[in-house]
Specification:
Number of strands: 2
Oligomer: single chain
Low-confidence stretches: none
Strand content: under 5%
CATH superfamily of the largest domain: MetI-like
CATH topology of the largest domain: MetI-like fold
Number of domains: 2
Shape: globular
Number of helices: 14
Helix content: over 70%
CATH class of the largest domain: Mainly Alpha
Length: 321
């Protein structure tokens, strides 16, 4: 087991190193920082001074080592658009994205497991057929179209929920949360449903397929022949053996909730890092773009470690190995 984690750690470090190089290339070769920082009317002397201050007049290898040194110290430069440290800008937006992804992830995992198990056990029931039909809609429709449809129905026609923004928030130290206000929860409903829809239906269909496969195995037939209760067979034998592929896909999908919340945040003008990333691309704010790439890569590395730990809890054979 220590060897497994050591191998995973080495692979994770290689991934972060590769992403850091890509982020450096973005930082170095996209856009002109002198125009972003000084404007188009700046003199040649001012431009050369900024280039020297940023170190862009040095060899590429030196620039990369300098960039990595700053990253290891938590320094990602100054936002060209906002004229503020990138770390501060991202720290302000990160709570909104994490709260959105957390609730959407819980909804997708819990709903996907419950509905997947139900549709597998009661596969001939009319409700199971209806759920499977609706899941095709969730898998097929693009996220932005789901979001626009929800806005039209619940915000425009019924006027039950807000169509954009985060609502009222409360400052708790360095964390800004909407969990403590009614408008914060109301503002979460539509973005959460939009972000979780595809993941929920994907997990539901995966759990159903794996569950049906497990119910056809010999050990389930043997358990029935021994006279074990159906609930114990379904949840103690079949479901437990479906969790390995489910944990893998679910871990990757939870990571993508944060990485690809961009569309949802744009549709609902949710003030998270996804919307910040879109605005940074439009404004060629290269330091923010590079920092976002590093942040997403680090999140995926952490999630993969958690998935590996979940394997050990689900499958005792890995612990014995």
């Amino acid at each position: 087991m220590p060897l497994l984690f050591a191998r995973r750690l080495g692979q994770s470090l290689l991934v972060l190193l590769a992403v850091s190089f890509i982020a450096f290339l973005v930082f170095r070769h996209i856009g002109d920082p002198t125009i972003s920082l000084l404007g188009e009317d700046a003199s040649l002397a001012d431009r050369e001074a900024v280039i020297a201050e940023l170190g862009f007049d040095q060899p590429v290898a030196v620039q990369y080592l300098r960039y990595m040194g700053n990253v290891l110290q938590g320094e990602f430069g100054i936002s060209y658009r906002l004229k503020r440290p990138v770390v501060e800008v991202i720290a302000e937006r990160l709570p909104a994205t994490l709260e959105l992804a957390l609730i959407a992830g819980l909804l997708a995992v819990a709903g996907g497991l419950v509905l997947g198990v139900y549709t597998a056990i009661h596969r001939e029931a009319w409700l199971s057929r209806a759920l499977m039909t609706l899941s095709l809609v969730g898998v097929s429709l693009p996220t932005f179209l789901i979001g626009i449809g929800l806005i039209y129905l619940f915000a425009v026609e019924l006027q039950w929920l807000p169509s954009f923004g985060r609502g009222d928030t409360v400052q708790l130290g360095g964390w800004t949360t909407g969990f403590l206000t009614a408008s914060g929860w109301a503002s979460l409903v539509l973005p959460v449903c939009t972000l979780a829809m595809f993941k929920l239906t994907l997990i539901m269909r995966l759990v159903r397929a794996e569950m049906l496969e497990a119910l056809r195995t010999d050990y389930v037939r043997f358990a029935r022949a021994r006279g074990l209760p159906e609930k114990r067979i379904h949840y103690g034998h079949a479901l437990r053996n479906t969790l390995i592929p489910v944990v893998t896909i679910t871990g990757l999908q939870i990571g993508s909730l944060i990485a690809f919340a961009i569309v949802t945040e744009t549709v609902f003008q949710w003030p998270g890092v996804g919307l910040l990333f879109i605005n940074s691309i439009q404004g060629v704010d290269v330091p923010v773009i590079a920092a976002y790439l590093m942040l997403i890569a680090a999140l995926y590395v952490v999630i993969n470690f958690l998935v590996d730990g979940a394997y050990l809890l689900v499958d005792p054979r890995l612990r014995r190995g």
